[in-house]
Amino acid sequence: MEIFKDIKKFKNRRKEIKKTVGFVPTMGALHEGHLSLIKKSKLENEITIVSIFVNPTQFNDKNDLKKYPRPLKKDIKLLSDEKVDILITPSYEEIYPDGYRYKLTETDFSKKLCGKFRPGHFDGVLTVVMKLFNIVKPDKAYFGEKDYQQYVLIKEMAKAFFLDIEIVACPTVREPDGLAKSSRNLLLNPKERKKASLIFETMVKNISDESVKKILNENGFKVEYVETINDRRFVAAKLGNVRLIDNIKISRRKE
Ligand code: AMP
């Protein structure tokens, strides 16, 4: 696997690549969710490029950014075992030579759900993804349904800005007890980890959003939202200091 920290060097290398390129942007602390995106990219493209960049502009909470796990050596081993072709791990200074003076804002859906509770979050996400797209120039880019709102916003951004990039959604990979795999699960203590599966257990039930919220709050979660939009139920809840999100397509909903 080739590893590039330096964007200029990577861009020179990119010019030589005439094959189809699949791209998987990540913040590292890789797990099977990330690996499922990589496997799909490898099936559908001749070259797969992964980025690891913990993007400060999408963290509205400084403490959350500080404690975000960064096991880079372990990640590199996982990626080379998956036979990823190229990894890029740029620094903040390289990604934001403008000091984040320029940013990309969506004014509607990005203000709902997570956007309502994490001001500026999706500005950071869309800005960094656009920068990474311009650096990597992929044919296809892979995003998890785990972050469904993010997937929709990126897909619509690609359309709005006439990007020749196919945005591919990949199903959420879960733990055996239903908890969506997430880098943040590493931050849960054993008691919290056990309780965390209640999010999935409750959200798939054929009960109202309000009832889901009530059950989770009664069980020690601090629920930010439970909301159903177009047959998809979205949940965000904190367990201790750890913020967990999930969503699921639902066919029926009644009390
Ligand atoms: P992150 O490193 O959290 O920014 O995630 C990088 C990519 O992996 C995003 O497109 C996520 O939606 C995706 N992803 C994270 N967790 C999962 C999961 N459990 N199943 C599927 N995709 C995931």
Polypeptide structure, described:
This protein has two domains: 2-170, HUPs (Rossmann fold, 3-Layer(aba) Sandwich); 183-249, Pantoate--beta-alanine Ligase, Chain: A,domain 2 (2-Layer Sandwich). Helix 2 (32-44) links the parallel strand 2 (21-26) and strand 3. Helix 7 crosses helix 8 (148-160). The N and C termini lie far apart (52 Å). It contains eleven helices and nine strands. The model has no long low-confidence stretch (mean pLDDT 97). Strands 1-4-3-2-5-6 form a six-stranded parallel beta sheet, with helices on both faces. Strands 7-8-9 form a three-stranded antiparallel beta sheet. The protein is an alpha/beta fold and 255 residues long. It has helices spanning 7-16, 32-44, 62-67, 72-81, 92-95, 114-117, 121-136, 148-160, 190-196, 198-203, 209-218; strands at residues 2-4, 21-26, 47-52, 86-88, 140-144, 166-170, 222-229, 232-239, 242-249. Adenosine monophosphate (AMP) is lined by residues 26-27, 33-34, 36-37, 143-144, 146-147, 170, 172-173, 180-183.
Which features characterize this protein?
255 residues; alpha/beta; Rossmann fold; Pantoate--beta-alanine Ligase, Chain: A,domain 2; 2 domains; six-stranded parallel beta sheet; three-stranded antiparallel beta sheet; 11 helices; 39% helix; binds adenosine monophosphate
CATH superfamily of the largest domain: HUPs
- Let me know the average pLDDT: 97
Fraction of residues in helix: 25-40%
Largest sheet: 6 strands, parallel
Count of distinct strands: 9
